[in-house]
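=== How it folds ===
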Amino acid sequence: QVQLVESGGGLVQAGGSLRLSCAASGRTFSSYDMAWFRQGPGKEREFVAVIRWSGSTTSYTDSVRGRFTISKDTTKNTVYLQMNSLKPEDTAVYYCAARRLGGALPLFTIDGYDYWGQGTQVTVSS
């Protein structure tokens, strides 16, 4: 079992930055692919970014590539999402997710993840 707790959300003006954190506890952190998803008002939950268990590979959705950076610190069992040049359309609840090694579904698929955090609100004002 893995428990995930997000933090770092808040209200920021367009063009500003935030860093989200996701603290993991339970099973071996380094054995999981870790991802961020988000759900905007009236929208479905969507993939944002993922970092593979090894930490050597990352992937981003097109709308955040070049602005967001996912990283992890295995010594702290924490994954981060650095968000720069924020836009009002980035407003959403951001969720951290983890999936066991060997998952068959694509990394951007919601159903491919085994554990979820409770979410943290990010609001970007124009």
